[in-house]
Amino acid sequence: FVFFRSFVPFCIWHENDLADSIVELTGHGRRDLNYFTLHNASLIARANVLPINKCSYPEEFSKNLSNGLTEEHLCFDNEAYLVPETCQQAAGGPIGGKKFKFNKQFRYAYALNSFGRDCGFGRAAVGVRLSSHIDWLQSVLLPDYRKDSGSVHFLHSELEENDICRHVDGAEGLCVGATRCPKIRYDFSVNRRVVFCQTSTVVCCPYENMVNETTASGRELDECAHRIKASSGSTNEAQFETGYISEPYLVEVGWRGNGDAKAQWSCRGTLITSKAVLTSAKCLQQQSIAPSVIRLGLNEAAPVVNVEETILHPEFDVASGKNNIALIKMKDAIDQSTIAINPACLWKNQTHTPFEMIQPVIKESTLGPALAFTKFNSDCDRTFRRTLDEHELCVDVEQLPYMDTGDSGGRLQVKLLHNAKVTPFVVAVTSFGSACGQSTPGVYTKVSKYAPWIRSVIAA
Predict the structure, then answer these.
(1) Helices first, then strands: H and E counts in the chain
(2) pTM as predicted
(3) What pLDDT sits at residue 214?
(4) Could you give the CA distance from residue 176 to residue 164 in angstroms, rounded to a whole number?
């Protein structure tokens, strides 16, 4: 039997505590009188879960309960009354709910409809909890199941390869082919718990245990600082002390319609390999279509290359602005021997953020620096009336009222001097908040927290 998108199995809820105090149940009745959602010719009603000691069900059902209600029962009701025959719950049908995890929505069956009337409206109805009968279900459905097998954990089939997932110990990872995760293969062989994603060949692999194919892009990202140190030429230390040198890795992201010769340059980004650009997911989503071109510099004469793929972080949330980071892959790698543009390196230190950084700004059409200083996240919490998480950074940018950042998708950077060489590091990507010249701080997305995800995408 093959499941398809509109017909998939419910997951069985194993725990005594439910994910929500409101449940959904299937029923049937008079369509001309009900106000429920029609779903495949059935009714979907919602009801409130009640404690067993507060469950008042119709007396005609008492004769079937010699011991009364027990912990195996699930009681639910709605205070409102319905016209008779409007909704009758389907005996044996699922009583369930939804839970959002692993960046997916899962449907769980908490119990099966047992008895009651009017779908629990006016008087409570009762179901039988599946969690109370897990051992019996396993004996029937999985006759070869061994309790010492480490409880192999199967996930919903819609958790696909390259989706973000969480291992059984809570570590964040990526759904990848089992061959890329030797640790998980070993854990499975010794009967430890593992998490499967789409099929038995795709597993949830913590980032630190993932074996990436040694692609040119992966090596380029890993060897960034070493490559810059080994390059020819040097940087004048006095020039370094000014806090600003040219930006040979700043690019513009553009949209070009069919037949249009001129592109609309609406976002900025940072070149981090010869084929990849780091930018803001929010900026990219402001357009109805994906970007089509990258301009390698800020002037109109700069070379333009075509976009191959745009990858927004899978957990980017438009409303809150969290996980506001994205990658753009170009169709062709730039030739650094002929084009005066070089990738910047990723700041990977997750415990320390530079106190003083540089925010590129525009002054009278000329690119220049503005100093940016790290603040406590609580300062931004008060300003924006929401709590910043560990992936976000509160920053105060130098007040320069005559400057315009024009930097949607741009970044904060720090430059370290090693062996007379300046190594540029991208510390954070613009997320939301104030531009320079205003007294309120801005919020940026920390690059270090997303370094494993960035590498997994680029090295794939």
Answers:
(1) 8, 27
(2) 0.55
(3) 55
(4) 10
Q: How far is CA 294 from the centre of its chain?
A: 25
Which of these three, 84, 113, 137, is where a domain ends? 137
Tokens at residue 301, please? 């004469």
Strand partners, 306: 293
Token output for 147? 């309790």
What is the span of the domain harbouring residue 395? Answer: 243-459
**Same domain? 298 vs 438:** yes
Q: Each residue of 35-59: pLDDT tens digit?
A: 554 444 456 778 889 888 888 887 7
- Domain finish residue from 93, 114, 137: 137
Is residue 101 located within the same domain as residue 166? no
Whether residue 19 sits in one domain with residue 131? yes
Q: Give yes or no for a contact between 454 and 346, defined as CB atoms under 8 angstroms apart.
A: yes
List residues bridging with 279 in a β-sheet. Answer: 326
Do 201 and 258 belong together in one domain? no
- Can you give the CATH number for the domain in which 23 is found? 2.40.10.10
Pairing of β 442-446 and β 421-433? antiparallel
Look at residue 134 in the predicted model and tell me its pLDDT.
87
* Residue 174 CB contacts under 8 Å (≥ 6 apart), including other chains: 162, 163, 164, 165, 204, 205, 207, 210, 453, 456
Burial class (CB in 10 A: 0-12, 13-18, 19+), 225: middle
CA distances to 176, 182, 313, 392, 459 from 206, in Å: 10, 11, 17, 22, 16
The CATH number of whichever domain residue 189 belongs to comes to 3.30.1640.30
229 phi, psi to nearest 5 deg: -65, -35
Residue with tokens 């929010």: 282
In Å, how far from its chain's centre is CA 31?
A: 39
Predicted local distance difference test score (pLDDT) of residue 237: 38
Q: Which tokens in the block code for residue 182?
A: 């030797």
